[in-house]
Amino acid sequence: MDKKKRFRTGRRQSARRGILLDDDASDDLGNFKGEPKNLHDYFRELSDKRASVREEAVSWILKALIDNIEQEFVEKNFVTLLYQCLHCIKKGSAKEMEQAAHTIGLLAMITSVDNAHEAYEDVKTVLSQRLKSKLKTLKILDCLAVVTFFGASNSDETEEAMQLIWKFIHPESDSSMKRNHSPAVLTAAISAWSFLLSTIDGWRLSYNNWQGAISYFSNLLDNNDETVCAVASEALALIFETNCLEKFSTEAKDTHGSIREGVTSMKIHSKKELKDNIIKQLRSRSTETSNENITTQDTKTGFNAVLAALDFLEEGNCLITYVTIGGQKITLSTWSQIIQLKFMKQFLGKDGFVKHMMENENFHDVFEFMPKTRNSLGSILYIPEREEVTIRFFRPPVPRHQDCSLLPFKSREERQLVKKLTMSPSSNLSKARTQLLKKHRLLSSEERKNDSFAVADGIQLE
C-alpha cells in the first residue's frame, strides 16, 4: 500500500511494460488513429489466418465493388481475388461465405468475358459441392446464377448450372439430395433458375432436362407463402414465353425417349388444357388473396407477379413496364427482361444497381442501355467559345473616280443583288444564320432537359 502511495496523483504505471503514463496523455493515445486502410490493404488481408480479419477485408472489398465498381483493381487482381474468395467459401464462417459469394458474383459482373468464363468453371465446381451439403447462405445460389450469366460461353454451360439448381429445388429429380426447403431458400433457388432460363432461346433447350417443370411450379401456386407463389408464377410465365412447352411438360414418348409421331392433335389439346388449368389456378389464387386482404405485390416495386402472369396467359401479351434510371427510361416488354432486371437489382441493391447501370459497360450490353454522358461541369453541354458563319459571293468591281472624291455609284440592279445575297430569306447567309440559331435552341433545350436528368437515387417502376 505504501508503494502505491508514492506515485503522484494523476499518474499510473503500466503493468505490462513498466512505464509511467499521465492520465491525460493516455487519453490522447487512445484517440490517436493511424492512416485509414485502402482497398489494397484489405486485399492483402484476404490471406490472413484470422477469420475476423478476413471477414472485415471481404466486407470492405464487397462494398467498394458495389459502390465504385473498381474495374482497374478487379482486372489487375482478378485471379487472386477469385481464389481467396473461393477459399473463404470452402473454409469460412457463414457470414464470410456469404460475403465471399457475393464478391465473386461482382467480379464476374465487372471483369472481362475471358475472366468471367474462368470464374464460371471454378465456381461451378466449388458451389456444386456446397449445394449438396447444408446451405449456409442463399448467396451461394445467387453467385452461381450471376457467374453463369456473365461467364457461360454457350447455352449448354448455362443449362449445366441450371441443372445444379434444379436438382437442389426439385428433390424428386435427385434422390440423394431429397430434403425440404424453407420458403426463403425455395424462393431464392427458383429466382436463380428463372434468371438463367431467361438467357436461353427456347429452341436451344434440351428435351430431357426439364420434363415435369410445369407440373412442379403449378403445384407451388398453392403454397401458403406468397413469395414462393410469386416466383412460381414468374417461372411459369417465362416457360410459356419460350413457346417450347413440350420441353417442360411430360409428353408421350416411345422406348427410345423421343416424342411419338402422329399425336400432334393430342399434344395441342394437352397444351391448351395445361394452360387453362394454370389460368384457373392463378385466378383462384388471386381471388383468394383478394378476399383475405393479402397483398401479393412486391413491397419494393409494387409488381404483382400473380396478376401479371394471369394477364399474360389470358391475353398473350406481357405487361409492359418502364424503369427510370438517371432520367432515362428502359422499356421492359418481355418476362425475360423483367426477371433479369429484378434479379440484378436484388443482387446489387437499389443504389448499387443504378451505379452499375450508369458506369458498368457489361450492363450496357446486357440491357442495351447507354447513359447520357455529362461533362465535368455537370449538366452544361459543350458550347464552343466562338462560332462564326462565313459566306462568300462574287461582287463585280465598281468603277470609281480617279480622285475618289465621291462614293461609288450603285445602280438599282447592284443594290437588289446585295439585298438578295444578304437580306433575302432564301439567301445563303440567311440560311446559315437560321441553322446557327436552330443549333443554339437545340443546345439550350438539351441543357434544360439534362438539368432535370440528375442521376436518380433509385429505380422507379411506372
Walk me through what this model shows.
The structure is a single chain. The protein has 462 residues and is mainly alpha-helical. It is 58% helix and 4% strand. It has 19 helices and five strands. The protein has a three-stranded antiparallel beta sheet with strand order 4-3-5. It has a two-stranded antiparallel ribbon with strand order 1-2. Helix 4 runs parallel beside helix 6 (94-110) and helix 12 packs parallel to helix 14. It is extended, with a radius of gyration of 34 Å. Residues 1-32, 252-266, 375-385 and 451-462 have low confidence and may be disordered.
Strand order of the largest sheet: 4-3-5
Largest sheet properties: 3 strands, antiparallel
The overall average pLDDT, rounded, is 78
* Helical content class: 55-70%
Strand content: under 5%
Question: Which structural category fits the helices and strands?
Answer: mainly alpha
